[in-house]
Automatic annotation (TrEMBL):
Keywords: DNA-binding, Phosphoprotein, Transcription, Transcription regulation. The keyword Oxidoreductase does not apply. It comes from Streptomyces ruber. The modification 4-aspartylphosphate is found at residue 52. Residues 144-215 form the HTH luxR-type domain. This is DNA-binding response regulator. One of its GO terms (molecular function) is DNA binding. GO terms for biological process: phosphorelay signal transduction system; regulation of DNA-templated transcription. PROSITE patterns: HTH_LUXR_2, RESPONSE_REGULATORY. The keyword Transcription regulation applies. It comes from the Bacteria.
Length: 219
């Protein structure tokens, strides 16, 4: 696995590199700015890019914007974003570009080496790894498990494919149904999960997060 790391804190950046190399992984480049990591991704074509959310010059959302740009330039690149604390808007912005090969973790997970490595490998394999704290805060007042029980088996199939990052046409092809049928299922999913068009969130992303938070979902 070839990895690029973007982190402006030199201790964390080098610590991550040492940890991953000790696990036999190939850290091909490190960077301390968003522009630096995008240049490294273009040059080295890594399997995974690990990025801090906040980097120079403004220390706001450079990492998220770099992650979105990296996915635009090289759609096959898996991205694992690290944040010091839960930033819900950043998480939903990132997941809006598709959830396949995507992770959003709190930095404290890095210290839990087994959990961090599991998330890294999951993302590298095309899966999704969203920090439980992110999901917990997004749904602190929501009984998402009860809402998921409202879905039919076919609606759960559609939601599972949405969580893989598939668009409506790809879902239709996978399930051998029409685009119109998929659109109807998604509208029903939004209704049963109480996701209103007036909500200030991306309903597709929120529906996927409901699915990821379900302990009963299929692996």
């Amino acid at each position: 696995m070839r990895i690029v790391i973007a982190e402006d804190d030199p201790l964390l950046r080098e610590g991550l590199a040492l940890l991953l190399r000790a696990e036999g992984l190939d850290v091909v480049a490190t960077a301390d700015t968003a522009d630096g990591v995008l240049a490294a991704i273009d040059e080295h074509e890594p399997d995974v890019a690990i990025l801090d959310v906040r980097m120079p010059p403004t220390h706001t959302d450079e990492g998220i914007r770099a992650a979105v740009e990296a996915r635009r330039r090289r759609p096959g690149t898996a991205v694992l974003v690290l944040s010091a604390y839960v930033e819900q808007s950043f998480a939903t912005d990132l997941l809006a570009v598709g959830t396949s090969g995507l992770g959003y973790l709190l930095k404290e997970r890095v210290g839990r080496v087994a959990e961090f490595l599991d998330a890294l490998h999951r993302v590298a394999s095309g899966g999704t790894a969203v920090d439980p704290e992110v999901i917990g805060q997004l749904f602190a007042r929501s009984s998402h498990a009860d809402r998921l029980q409202r879905l039919t088996p076919r609606e759960r199939d559609v939601l599972a494919l949405m969580a893989e990052g598939l668009g409506n046409r790809a879902i239709a092809e996978r399930l051998v149904v029409t685009d119109g049928a998929v659109h109807k299922h998604i509208r029903s999913i939004f209704a049963k999960l109480d996701l209103s068009p007036a909500d200030q969130v991306d309903r597709r992303v929120t529906a996927v997060l409901h699915y990821l938070a379900d302990p009963q979902r299929r692996p």
